[in-house]
Amino acid sequence: MMEISFLAALAVFAATMTGTPGPNNMMLTASGANFGYKRTIPHLIGISLGVATLIAFVAAGLGVIFKMYPWIQETMKVVASGYLVYLAWRIVKAGAPDASQREGRRPMTMLEGAMFQFINPKAWAMAVSAVGTFTLSGGDYWWSAAVIVMTFIAVGFPLTSLWAGFGVWVGKVLSTESSWKAFNRTMGALTASCLVFIWL
Predict the structure, then answer these.
(1) What is the pLDDT of residues 42-60, one digit of tens each?
(2) Where are the transmembrane segments (predicted)?
(3) I want to staple 108 with a disulfide (CB 3.0 to 4.6 A). Which of 68, 112, 149, 177 is the partner?
(4) Model pTM?
């Protein structure tokens, strides 16, 4: 019974963290609308792999480095802010899907989606919180860390897929160049607004 309650609590936590708005889901919505679900799959896989790797690194003690060397965390905040603004600008400048084959118009790759998690403030928050809350002591530590990683993959991928799917639906609703521009500007602004997660 204790194990069932543990897994249930972990699954709810993972669903809350991966299914709510944040940089990943804003970008996935924009990608789904602009490129379709199929072309967004590498981005989705990259997010899952990146989050899983980040959790594993935090469990291995990466979080301790930030406590020892605070300047590393501050540097990452600056890098994350700059990259988030760049991604938001890419979304803002995107045109309608019929222009998606133009130079410079492509969805994020799997590697980009994975690497972004290491400067994604929400990903860091959920990795640190998950490891701090759900890892067990003693000989069960690594087992529980592995369960956390697998739960985030199992729960997170379907939920982030919903955001990409929502984007696909929005893309079908939008019918004019002006509506596409308005949508992309809105998604770009929402992506940029995630800077709040970094500096609060």
Answers:
(1) 999 999 999 999 999 999 9
(2) 43-66, 114-136, 142-170, 182-199
(3) 112
(4) 0.83
- For residue 16, being part of any structural domain is answered with no
Taking the CA of residue 188 as centre, how many other CA atoms within 13 Å lie in the half-sphere pointing to its CB? 18
Q: Tell me the Cα Rg of the chain.
A: 18
Calpha distance 68→98 (Å, rounded): 50
Residue 81 maps to a domain: yes
Phi, then psi, of 108 in degrees rounded to 5: -65, 145
Distance CA 119, CA 117 (A): 5
Q: Please tell me the distance from the alpha carbon of residue 11 to that of residue 61, in angstroms, as a whole number.
A: 23
Q: Which of 166, 177, 181 is nearest to 33 (CA)?
A: 166
In whole angstroms, give the CA distance from residue 61 to residue 98: 46
